[in-house]
Amino acid sequence: MAQAVQRSTVAKIRKDRRKAPWPVEFYRSAVGKKWVMALSGLMLMGFVVSHLVGNLKLYLGREEINLYGEALRDMPGHLLPRTVLLWVVRIGLGAAFAVHIHAAVTLTQTNRKARSKNYQSPRDYLAANYASRTMRYSGVIVLAYLIFHLADLTWGAGPHHLRGDAYNNLVYSLQRPLIASVYVIANLALGLHLTHGAWSMFQSLGVNNPRINAFRRHFARGFAALVVVGNVSFPLLVQLHVVEPTCGKVRTPIADERPCATAIPEAHETAEGNHP
Amino acid sequence: MSPANGDAQTTNANMKIKVTVWRQAGPNAQGAFKDYDLDDISPEMSFLEMLDTLNEMLNDRGEEPVAFDHDCREGICGSCGMMIDGVPHGPERGTATCQLHMRKFSSGAHIKIEPFRASSFPINKDLSVDRSAFDRIIESGGYISAPTGTAPDANLIPIPKGVADVSMDAAQCIGCGACVAACPNGAAQLFTSAKLAHLNLMPQGQAERWDRTVNMVDTMESYFGSCTNHGECEAACPKEISIDFIALMNKDFVKAQLKQRRLAGQLFP
């Protein structure tokens, strides 16, 4: 006996929308968003590593790291006016952050819709690890820390901040135990985020090949470890008084002399005049 | 093997277990867990036979039996599937619920059974869920429009052994929905990527490769969540399908964006 086929009507979790130009259409798709997240993540990973490598100049002394800061403002030499390229890089990184966060937020909303009612008994995860399940939290911590870090050392809310004297600004800031612990905790969160992100990136981009598949996890863990060890070393070594503020006169082309320890610097005018 | 009927071979080693089962009268009814004690379960029973035994007991008591999906009971149809102790298809890897045996549990075990959950897998009743959203994904890409004529000779199109093997790995997908159930995001990437890969890897599948990829991904995304690369789906899959196929789908989706599909004779959006 023929029976009428009853077609079930499962509701879609998103509305059908009119077709848009392809970059928009591509970004609307979750696979496209993940691709964008992977690429922006890769950009930010590049930033994190170059930031770390640059900061390691702290261990070469005040002059070296301050010259490095000046070199960043001055790149690429006389080809462009001062700070132009730096601002291009800053805007590019800001855009990468913005798109990374936007994609993360919208994908999370989609995923919540895709499981509107969760399991009522405890789940037993087989493969998902702590890092992968806490991406949204580690991400938020890193974002909060980024704003704090910019306020502290770039915009100059730190103690005795003197524009252009990266060395002492950093050391004065990290001498405060509370601030040092913020840096340590935030970098551990960053490491956690990278442990999953630097692996996940390969999958999202479709970089999957038996020759490198085993390497991808090692890369992510190694990368995260490198970033954590490097970045945590700064607050730690300052707290252990291995790195101290400079005393007396150190002649650099950047900042004028500055009294040591907790004395309030007096050379604001000249420094700010030179370095807008 | 049929449920134990008090035969001599099974009486000695029979297990006493307690099951907590999600009971829900209908799609919109309020559901709740209910406990049942079973004290004559043979270790040789499959998980579904254990549920059969439970249903016989409920029938005898005059209660409503537990609804659950099943068909072939040999691990190839993809009908059965439920969350057993928080894992789709239970604790044994690479096994569908029907092939999970009670000997994997110890006597006195307390087993929690819940239906697969996802917004696009609405519960029909008890442990039975509506997985027809998978059919929508298949419909959106699972045909070819080329006239094929009569059946060609079997070996007319040379296919290297490796290609056939990998394609078969993907084609093993039985569409049970464990990947969606396992995914914290309720994403269907493993299912869709397996269905895509088993066609996209074959020479016969090239003709509509890019359209198929875009259409199936699009349909998938209108019902399911997105991939965050936890790898839970791969671990839960009764056919142990690899998340490598998800990477292939991601790559094909991006490639499809860049193809001149109009000149390839394919529809351009």
Q: What's the name of the CATH homologous superfamily of the largest domain in chain B?
A: Alpha-helical ferredoxin
Largest interface, with counts of residues having CB < 8 Å to the other chain, equals: A-B, 53 and 57 residues
Low-confidence region ranges of chain B: 1-11
CATH domain class name of the largest domain in chain B: Mainly Alpha
* Structural domain tally of chain B: 2
**N to C succession of SSEs of chain A:** HHHHHHHHHH
What is the name of the CATH topology of chain A? Answer: 3 helical TM bundles of succinate and fumarate reductases
The tally of beta strands of chain A, per DSSP, is: 0
- Total strands of chain B: 7
The tally of helices of chain B reads 9
The name CATH uses for the topology of the largest domain in chain B is Fumarate Reductase Iron-sulfur Protein, Chain B, domain 2
Distance between the termini of chain B: 54 Å
CATH hierarchy, class of chain A: Mainly Alpha
Tell me briefly what this model is.
The complex is a heterodimer of chains A (276) and B (269). Chain A has 276 residues and is mainly alpha-helical.
Notes on the structure:
The complex is a heterodimer of chains A (276) and B (269). With 276 residues, chain A is mainly alpha-helical. Chain A has a single domain, classed as 3 helical TM bundles of succinate and fumarate reductases, CATH 1.20.1300. Chain A is 64% helix and 0% strand. Chain A has ten helices and no strands. Chain A has helices at 22-28, 30-55, 62-74, 84-114, 130-133, 135-154, 166-174, 177-205, 210-239, 268-274. In chain A, α2 (30-55) packs across α4 and α6 crosses α8. The N and C termini of chain A lie far apart (86 Å). Chain B folds into two domains: 8-114, Beta-grasp domain (Ubiquitin-like (UB roll), Roll); 132-258, Alpha-helical ferredoxin (Fumarate Reductase Iron-sulfur Protein, Chain B, domain 2). Helices cover 34% and strands 12% of the residues of chain B. Chain B has helices spanning 8-11, 47-61, 132-141, 161-171, 178-182, 189-200, 209-223, 232-236, 244-258, and strands at residues 15-23, 32-41, 83-84, 87-88, 110-114, 123-125, 128-129. In chain B, the strands form two sheets. In chain B, strands 2-1-5-3-4 form a five-stranded mixed beta sheet. Chain B has a two-stranded antiparallel sheet with strand order 6-7. In chain B, a hairpin with a 2-residue loop joins β6 and β7. In chain B, α3 packs antiparallel against α7 and α7 (209-223) crosses α9. The longest helix of chain B is centred in the N-terminal third of the chain and has 15 residues, at 47-61. Classes of the chains: A mainly alpha (276), B alpha+beta (269). At the A-B interface, α1, α2, α4 and α8 of A face α3, α7, α8 and α9 of B.
